[in-house]
Amino acid sequence: MATELNYPEIIKKILLEYLKYDSADDVIKSSVSFDDEHGNYVLLQAGWRGDDYLQGAIIHIQLIDSKVWVQYDGTEYGIANELVDAGISKADIVLGFRHPSVRQYTGFASI
Fold this sequence. Notes:
This protein is of the alpha+beta class. The protein contains two helices and five strands; from the N terminus they run H-E-E-E-E-H-E. The chain has one domain (4-18, 29-105): TATA-Binding Protein (2-Layer Sandwich). The chain has helices at 7-19, 79-85; strands spanning 28-35, 40-49, 52-64, 67-73, 93-95.
């Protein structure tokens, strides 16, 4: 089982895997932003689709009080599931994008 000290490494490894999905001719490019000092890890996308400019976070994770908080998840499989697959306990993952009143029913940590 992973420990708190491994969380940044695990998160970074998973987010960096998403960069491999960009192809050379994609007009929407992905990038990552890691802030170890403040415990913030973000996967971003930006680019043009036709006449529309798209930009925003695809995944946002924070380390808060020894827990991994998934603040935003725009993936199909679910970044929380990927974190579990990588060895992080569900008891240490909070789905921050879920209302506090329903977190207890998610199978992940409620706080």
